[in-house]
Prior knowledge:
The chain is mostly helical. It is built from 5 helices and no strands. Helix 2 (46-53) packs across helix 3. The chain is globular and about 35 Å long.
Amino acid sequence: MSETAKDPRAGAYGYHADRLDDASREVRLDIAGRVKAARGAAGLSQAMASARLGVPLGTYRRWETGESPIPSDELVRIATILDVGALSLMLGDGGTR
Length: 97
């Protein structure tokens, strides 16, 4: 491909959507891992956490494995039942609220 030819996989702004997808997946997996660790530290099972949140167990499991992104309002609710800060789940600072 010549220097002037545009990569057909690149988006309108010159970035690759697959790179963004990979980054998004990494972030999702990082958050999911922190949720899982915080749940374990709180002594709750996935079933107990999902029941406290009022969401189906399958939904909670997909959030915790990173298969599905956790909606921001649900992440705040998860932080509340696990007694940790929502920012610590998002950013991994290890702080409590």
